[in-house]
Amino acid sequence: xxxxxxxxxxxxxxxGHLDIINRTRKLYNKLFIVINENINKKTFFSIEERKQLxxxxxKGMDNVEVVIxxxxxxxxxxxxxxxxxxxxxxxxxxFEYELQMSSFNRILDSDVETIFIMxxxxxxxxxxxxxxxxxxxxxNISQFVPKNVELALRQKIKS
Length: 159
Ligand code: ADP
Hints:
This protein has 159 residues and is an alpha/beta fold. It has 6 helices and 5 strands. It is 43% helix and 19% strand. The N and C termini lie far apart (45 Å). The structure holds adenosine-5'-diphosphate (ADP).
């Protein structure tokens, strides 16, 4: 029984993230979506807001669970009994950072393997930051994020 974690900021979750979740949840016994509370990174949504948005999106996916953490990814794997870290790869520009992170994680715990999933061609340009930028300029983001996220983004910029 192999469990996996899919860590990230999810600020906010996009259709690209959801595509990775839908594709990988079929491969593992359990998939934990791990939302990082990175105090060095200023986020648009609070950790609780991000968790709620992800939870609304994965409702009904019975082997998917959402967790919040401020710990090292390999520590989270140990706690959740997960052997695999899932990361998505979009452009070549993702590669350098992901290579660095996966190398660090392997040094920290060689029992944990990072598995990369290539982004669907429809989402390979899509990032949480581009969605936030578009919404700030009043653009239409309905094709990039689920409805609940679109509403939350619009609500946020109003307040
Ligand atoms: P982080 O700050 O850890 O990069 P993100 O929420 O931006 O957190 O991304 C989490 C993971 O999801 C990363 O592996 C990232 O490459 C992947 N990802 C982000 N957007 C997409 C997308 N459109 N398609 C596929 N993977 C994506």
